[in-house]
From TrEMBL:
Coiled coil: none annotated. L-histidine binds at residues 84-86, 114, 128, 132, 260, 264-265. This is Histidine--tRNA ligase. Keywords: Aminoacyl-tRNA synthetase, ATP-binding, Cytoplasm, Ligase, Nucleotide-binding, Protein biosynthesis. Homodimer. It is found in: Cytoplasm. Belongs to the class-II aminoacyl-tRNA synthetase family. The keyword Isomerase does not apply. Residues 1-358 form the Aminoacyl-transfer RNA synthetases class-II family profile domain. One of its GO terms (cellular component) is cytoplasm. Its EC number is 6.1.1.21.
Length: 422
């Protein structure tokens, strides 16, 4: 048998105990935010029929073309690990009748899978927090979706490091008329375009606008502009959204090249980007997708949503030092137990403390160990104080520099702890 140790799959990260508190910190903020806006959580499987993603995200998108983890299961069905949440959310909501003539404000959080080249801020298993709001066509829901993302940045102390870019894709008719015009313009320069863009000319011409190639970007400088193809009504709605954002004090930059990689968007699209993370600059992206529910077999249902890359938010929090020092501190009391015969007594005392003071976090030393080595562990745990149980005596020692010890009987301990941890 091979002795080589098995390693995790490339691009799929373990989250170790030193880091889980950071995740919990972000997750708690997200849960509080969603409660404050009265959105409801939805959970759906990580595996779906491959067809779901092909039909929604689009055959000619990066995700479906080259990033999905797709395989046949034992029945020969083609399944894919979810590369994003919107398609699954629509599938689940539609399947369970949540969308017919109803308004829904939903959110989800969890792992997504894309076979990309792993690098900082880009992984093969990564996590998204996303929201999807169904049944509302007004600009106010678009504004709310953006306002709530801005509120999260404020709460996390990231407000000044993120900027909002926004664009209007118009109706799907506007979008396809523009696509035609862009295609005929680009066909004249076909040989000079990068390889990906040449392929996208037929399949997904708007994506050419996203090209990273300098030559292609140069050609795009004189290309038709999306704005010129947008009808008056759609433009007026977009202006209304912008005026709400301005009134709310949200700064934005209009970017007529912003089209987003997924096929299902129409109307407004937006991205929050940062200069703190190098090439992986987009932290949160979303927009309106009024056609998707119908495309997946439901009725006409206006919809708006976004997805946020949680690893990228965490990288920002960590690199900018925005995680409060108390996060990760998870022990209040260390229970040192000297002498084997005292072990059960120590455990029971810890139980007693936990039921009298349920908010306190009590870490017990289990097993043998000299006083000094247990004290060392107590310091390393970050506890505020240590209780030392030795023979009939219980000493309480504060773990600050002077560490003075009080000798207590078991009756006195609870009231003493109450005064320490007010
Ligand atoms: P990018 O241009 O960075 O590839 P995308 O357009 O593919 O992003 P979306 O599908 O819009 O991304 O996903 C929403 C967010 O999820 C992104 O803005 C990003 O923060 C995050 N994200 C996407 N792919 C990854 C990944 N492979 N690893 C980590 N985060 C990711
Ligand atoms: Mg991508």
């Amino acid at each position: 048998m091979s002795k080589v140790k098995i390693q995790a799959i490339r691009g799929m990260n373990d989250v170790l105990p030193s880091q889980t508190p950071h995740w919990q910190y972000l997750e708690q903020h997200i849960r509080q935010l969603m409660a404050a806006y009265a959105y409801q959580e939805i959970r759906f499987p990580v595996l779906e029929q491959t067809q779901l993603f092909k039909r929604s995200i689009g055959d000619a998108t990066d995700i479906v073309e080259k990033e999905m983890y797709t395989f046949e299961d034992r029945n020969g069905d083609s399944l894919s690990l979810r590369p994003e949440g919107t398609a699954s959310c629509v599938r689940a909501a539609e399947q369970h009748g949540l969308l017919y003539n109803q308004i829904q404000k939903l959110w989800y959080m969890g792992p997504m899978y894309r076979h990309e080249r792993p690098q900082k801020g880009r992984y093969r298993q990564f996590h998204q927090f996303g929201i999807e709001a169904f049944g509302m066509s007004a600009s106010t829901i678009e504004a709310e979706v953006i306002l709530l993302s801005a509120a999260l940045w404020q709460k996390l102390g990231l407000g000044q490091y993120l900027s909002l870019e926004i664009n209007n894709l118009g109706t799907s008719a506007n979008r396809s008329a523009y696509g035609e015009a862009l295609r005929s313009y680009l066909l004249k320069f076909k040989d000079k375009l990068d390889e990906d863009s040449q392929r996208r000319l037929d399949a997904n011409v708007l994506r050419v606008l996203d090209s990273k190639s300098a030559d292609t970007q140069l050609i795009l400088e004189k290309a038709p502009i999306l704005e010129d193809f947008i009808d008056a009504e759609s433009q007026a709605e977009f202006e209304q959204l912008l005026s709400i954002l301005s009134a709310a004090g949200i700064k934005y930059k209009r970017n007529s090249r912003l089209v987003r990689g997924l096929d299902y968007y129409n109307g407004m699209v937006f991205e929050w980007t940062t200069e703190e993370l190098g090439a992986q600059a987009t932290v949160c992206a979303g927009g309106r997708y009024d056609g998707l529910v119908k495309q997946l077999g439901g009725g006409d249902t206006p919809a708006v949503g976004f997805a946020m890359g949680m690893e990228r938010v965490l990288l920002m929090l960590e690199e900018l030092g925005k995680i409060p020092a108390a996060v990760g501190q998870n022990v209040d009391i260390f229970m040192a137990i000297i002498g084997g015969e005292n072990q059960p007594k120590g455990l029971f005392l810890a139980e007693e403390i936990r039921s009298a003071l349920p908010a306190l976090r009590v870490l017990t030393h289990c097993g043998a160990g000299k006083y000094n080595s247990q004290l060392k562990r107590a310091f390393a745990s970050g506890a505020t104080c240590v209780l030392v149980l030795e023979d009939e005596e219980i000493k309480l020692k504060m773990l600050d520099a002077d560490g003075q010890a009080d000798v207590l009987d078991s009756q006195g301990i609870i009231s003493k702890l109450k005064t320490i941890f007010k």
